[in-house]
Amino acid sequence: MQTIFPKWSTPILESVSSIGLLFFLFLVGLELDLSSIRRGGQKAFTIAVAGVSFPFILGVGVAFIFRKAIDGADKVGFAQYTVFMGVSLSITAFPVLARILAELKLFTTRVGETAMAAAAFNDIAAWILLALAIALAADGSSEHKNPMVALWVLLSGAAFVVLMMVVVKPVMAWINRRCLHEPNAVDEAYICLTLAGVMVAGFVTDFIGVHAIFGAFVFGLTIPKEGQFAERLIERIEDFVSGLLLPLYFASSGLKTDVTKIQGGMAWGLLVLVISTACTGKIFGTFTTAILWKIPVRESLALGCLMNTKGLVELIVLNIGKEKKVLNDEAFAILVLMALFTTFVTTPAVLAIYKPARSSMLSKRKLESNTHDDDHHYRIMACIHGPNNIPSLVSLIETIRPTNPKSKLKLYVMQLVGLTERSSSIATLQRLKGNGFKFINRLRRKEYELVNGIAMAFQGYSQLGRVAVSPTAAISPLTTMHEDILELAENKSVRMIIVPFHKQYRRKTDGGIGPEFQVENVGHGWWEVHQRLIQVAPCSVAVLVDRGFGWKSEEEAAPPSSTSGVVKRVSVIFFGGPDDREALAFGGRMAEHPAVKVTVIRFTAESHGSGDQHAIIPMQINEKELDDAAVHDFRMRWEGKVEFKEMTKVSNTVESVLLGIGRNSNEQCYDLVIVGKGRRTSLNVGTTEEYPELGPVGDLLASSNQGIVCSALVIQHHGNMAHSGTQHFPAKFV
Questions:
Q1: Residue 78, phi-psi category: left (phi > 0), alpha (psi -120 to 50), beta (remainder)
Q2: Where in this chain does the record put each Cation/H(+) antiporter C-terminal domain (predicted)?
């Protein structure tokens, strides 16, 4: 250990880690939304008070035992020791609790919302008590104590908080308002000024006798949580702080923790005592208060376990106690192990006690989209990664909006937020907790006007009574994101899930011959989410490959001609099979829209000899009959409104025809091509499949190197892949 951390490096290590700690507490204050405390109400307040007071009182009793059992503990002032011990047992780590709730998918449940509100109260109370403990320790431990020193520290600290809230907070609000009008980014001068302010606030509180971290924490509270400014601050410093500086603080804390000081049965007995006292006080206080509020027993017990979460904040308190010479090496080691144990057992304890009933993810419920039993109540779930997905979603929903007043379209919009260890992920998570259009309006400001207009459009649809919109958010690690999507789909009995393709094509605006696209990949993790969703979805799934379907070009922005009035041109490619029948039914919903022109292109089998190497794999008779019946019914229903074309399925010309449709090189240009994922046929579109989850035709239309300019909607019928024993991928073209 001396080789890795020689003695001469200790001051440098502690100095750098202290700077990291300063900015970490600034991030904690930035994450803590004071408005959530006001929204928590009386229930969260009383639960928080009980969760702090019970373990604090028990901590005072433990302090008596520690002062008798640990050598040197009785030399510290009684008030200092008891307050530090009470704080160490009663604190709840707000950032750690937020991550645990999100990982357990409890953040938007009643337990999660109550826990977060109570933890916010708890956090504020713990910092006040810690400030009191530091003030009591400010006059030293000798016999020359002066109570006026502690009083000065307390009054100065209170004056500092008032000054920050009265003077600095309006200044930060003014800076935030200025940043709202920045077209692209936050002015670097504001960021530098704020980061310098963190250091100044820490210096001031350290000067008046309160620890420097209080200044950084209070300064973080003064910054408005809405808008782009807070997000940009977090993005700028969180990786540097969490990835480099905080690990150094953990290393410094670990070097100070000497577990060998815990010797003998008495010391280990004290460890068991402090662990049981901390757990009992926090859980019992929270549980009994929650029961009085008529919260169910299991939820109350889970709430108590969640409020027992310790973490880095606990280590900070203990390190301050050691720094102020209130805790010696033995007491410090015992309390550090207590903090680690209580944090480690929280997640498994909550999982064992409370787990919300979840629907079976592999339900065999089959939702036939081409039946007409509930056509008047059509439910669709649409997932979005960010603001860029919203225009195409709105355009797509507009094309299937029912014109019959008796028909209803219910749209569930779910924003997918990947949970990471980044502070900004937790900050975003808190903003999305409210399940509503607020999560749309609080995205990045450079897209605010567009997204706000989209939200107003959604609300307009709801007022028309034909599209009822219910926005929500899924906040999970990418490995389990599909479970949240499937749960909502099952609970709401949706008929189709629409997800955006993991690659986003943005039309370039620099001019040139023909349209050019810039490809943005949202990440391989999202591609895996879509893969898992397609495999186990309880309903049909549609993947939208967007090439500007919701963004109007100059030509599209012009008023439509008086003769046609057509705004969107849609093509439905039909080869046959359940996926294509689903695509045909979806196209039928668009056909009734007066501003949508639908063209159905059916590929029929060519006559061939037995020796033809491209012979069509025979379809089952019932599949052929179902295809013919679906096309016949479609023709009868939409005759005169839909254009029908038939082409012979010649293997060496199908690919060129599809490319012509995708490139808009034919006589008619299409904005959207709807195609089924496909079943095994003789079609050989391309030698390799870059995106096998889209099928061969969808893979071709999603390709970025084929000159495709129109958007594509690839539909997989429920049961055509994961719930059947036969592989239904279309064969590749050779």
A1: alpha
A2: 570-718
Q: Report the DSSP pairing between strands 377-384 and 408-418.
A: parallel
Report CA torsion sign: 650, 651, 656, 661. positive
Phi, psi values for residue 187, rounded to 5°: -60, 130
Same-domain pairing of 389 and 340: no
One domain for residues 533 and 653: yes
HSE-CB for 390 with a 13 A CA cutoff: 24
Does residue 349 sit within a domain?
Answer: yes
Q: Whole-prediction pTM value?
A: 0.69
- Residue numbers of the domain that contains 255: 12-156+245-353
Whether residues 150 and 45 share a domain: the answer is yes
**DSSP codes joined into one string, 389-429:** GHHHHHHHHHHT---STT-EEEEEEEEEEE--SSHHHHHHH
Strand partners, 381: 412, 497
Q: One-letter amino acid identity for 709?
A: V
Q: Where are the beta strands (DSSP E) in 501-539?
A: 503-507, 517-521
Convert the pLDDT of each residue in 62-105 to its tens digit.
Answer: 999 988 888 878 788 788 888 888 888 888 877 778 777 777 77
**Pairwise CA distance, residues 112 & 679, whole Å:** 44
Which portions of the chain are predicted below pLDDT 70? 1-2, 36-40, 108, 138-147, 181-185, 355-376, 420-466, 507-518, 550-566, 606-621, 649-653, 664-668, 679-689, 719-734
DSSP 508: -
Both 476 and 327 in one domain: the answer is no
Distance CA 626, CA 198 (A): 69
Q: How many domains does the chain have?
A: 2
Question: Do 125 and 131 contact (CB within 8 A), yes or no?
Answer: no
Same domain, 410 and 341: no
In a domain, 504, yes or no: yes
For residues 488 and 344, give the distance between their C-alpha atoms in angstroms, rounded to a whole number: 30
Residues 485/532, Cβ–Cβ less than 8 Å:
no
Query: Does 270 lie in the same domain as 413?
Result: no
Cα 29 to Cα 230: distance, rounded to the nearest angstrom: 11
Same domain, 332 and 386: no
Determine the Cα–Cα distance for residues 101 and 565; give it in Å rounded to an integer.
51
Task: Give backbone dihedrals phi and psi of 469, rounded to 5 degrees, phi first.
Answer: -105, 135
- Rounded to whole angstroms, the Cα distance separating 420 from 429 reads 10
- Tell me the residue type at 461: Y
CATH of the domain at 383: 3.40.50.620
163 assigned to some structural domain: no
**Residues 572, 672 contacting (CB under 8 angstroms):** no
The residue among 620, 53, 181, 152 whose CA lies nearest residue 190 is 181
If asked whether residues 309 and 401 sit together in one domain, one would say: no
Which tens digits make up the pLDDT trace of 652-694? 667 777 877 877 666 667 889 999 987 544 455 555 567 788 8
SS3 at position 597:
strand
pLDDT given at position 438: 39
What SS3 state is found at 592? coil
The CATH code of the domain that includes 324 is 1.20.1530.20
Residue 424 located in a structural domain:
yes
